[in-house]
Amino acid sequence: xxxxxxxxxxxxxxxxxxxxxxxxxxxxxxxxxxxxxxxxxxxxxxxxxxxxxxxxxxxxxxxxxxxxxxxxxxxxxxxxxxxxxxxxxxxxxxxxxxxxxxxxxxxxxxxxxxxxxxxxxxxxxxxxxxxxxxxxxxxxxxxxxxxxxxxxxxxxxxxxxxxxxxxxxxxxxxxxxxxxxxxxxxxxxxxxxxx
Length: 195
Description:
Structural class: alpha+beta
Number of strands: 6
Helix content: 40-55%
Strand order of the largest sheet: 4-3-5-6
């Protein structure tokens, strides 16, 4: 049983929202210092928090506008109050202010087979959570550090398949030649497609 001074711990954003008293001190619905980070009641990871809140916004934009207006009044000047994530019209998680969405992987001197590309996609998917956070760091890096990040990813994949690859970021799947020898990996949604 909880004491009167101890906040009630809730598991999900929706559970907390339904409970009411959204801005109860120490148990606020949203993190007052950084809206992009999970609040103290939320038991999942930061990635799960972003997925939860952006799904809520996508499905309930009017309710979100009311919540967000209240949040801005309470959190004013406390820290980062701008949500850096959203869901596009198809429901995919996206990061604001970046067009670097897909990690494009292709053979360097010769095309990679579908089997090899699929193996790469599955391996990257298994490392999805780690790659999600790594991608967020990548977005904030300077150009030199971004080149080092790409070189590191290239080495990881080349070690896995024993072939040379080229890795770049691309904004759209429309940039593909559609020859079934390129893998596009969405680091935010941990999904891939071979085109």
